[in-house]
Amino acid sequence: MSTGHAQDAAVMPVILSSTELSTHFEIETMIDTPAFLNSATDSQRKEYIELEGNPNLTMEMKQKALTNWALRCGNPVNGLYTQYMAEKQTLQEQEDQRMSVIVAQLSPEAQQADKHVRGITSNLNQTKKEMDTNVAKQLKKLPKKVYYELTFATQ
C-alpha cells in the first residue's frame, strides 16, 4: 500500500519494454565504442579489431597498420580516427606530466628506476607482450624499498 510519499517512488523498480531495453544497451555500447568504429562498416570494424588484437605486431607496426586502415576507410572514419588519436595523445601527455610531478618527489633511486621503465615503455619496436615482460624484469631487479616506493607513488 502506497503512502503517497516521494520515497515510495524511489524504491519502485523501473520496468523497461524490450525496445527501451535494447535502445538503452545500444546507447551504452555506442558510448563505449569510439566514434570512428561506430562509423565503420562491419568488415572495417572486423579488420580494425584483428589489427588491434594482433599480438605479433610491434607497437610501431600496429600504429602504422591502423593509420593505413583508417586511410583506406576514408571519411568519416579517417577523420574520426585522426581526432581520436589526437585526443589519446593529449591524454597521454597530460598523464606523463602528472607522473613527472609525482616522480620528481621520489628518491633518486626511484627516479632512476622510473627512467628505465619509461625507456622501455617508449620503445615502440617491441610487441606489447615484450614490453610487459621487459618492464616486469626491470621492476624485479629493484630493491624492495625502491619497488614499493615507485609502485605506490605512481598508482
What keywords describe this structure?
155 residues; mainly alpha; disordered N terminus
Can you characterise this structure?
Mean pLDDT is 85; it is low at 1-29. This protein has 155 residues and is mainly α. The chain is elongated. Helix content is 75%, strand content 0%. The longest helix is centred in the middle third of the chain and has 27 residues, at 77-103. Helix 4 runs antiparallel to helix 5, helix 5 (59-73) runs antiparallel to helix 6 (77-103) and helix 7 (108-121) crosses helix 9 (144-153).
| Alpha carbon gyration radius | 23 Å
Unreliable spans: 1-29
Structural class category: mainly alpha
Termini separation comes to 50 Å
Tally of DSSP β-strands:
0
Q: Average pLDDT across residues? A: 85
Largest sheet: none
Using the alpha-carbon principal axes, give the shape.
elongated
Strand content: under 5%
- Kindly state the percentage of residues in helix: over 70%
Q: Number of helical runs?
A: 9
**Assembly state of the chains shown:** single chain
Give the topology string: H per helix, E per strand.
HHHHHHHHH
Short account of what is shown:
The protein has nine helices and no strands.
Describe the SSE topology.
Layout: H1 6-11, H2 18-32, H3 35-39, H4 42-52, H5 59-73, H6 77-103, H7 108-121, H8 128-141, H9 144-153
Protein name: SXP/RAL-2 family protein Ani s 5-like cation-binding domain-containing protein
Domain SXP/RAL-2 family protein Ani s 5-like cation-binding: 44-146
InterPro entries: ANIS5_cation-bd (IPR003677), SXP/RAL-2_related (IPR052823)
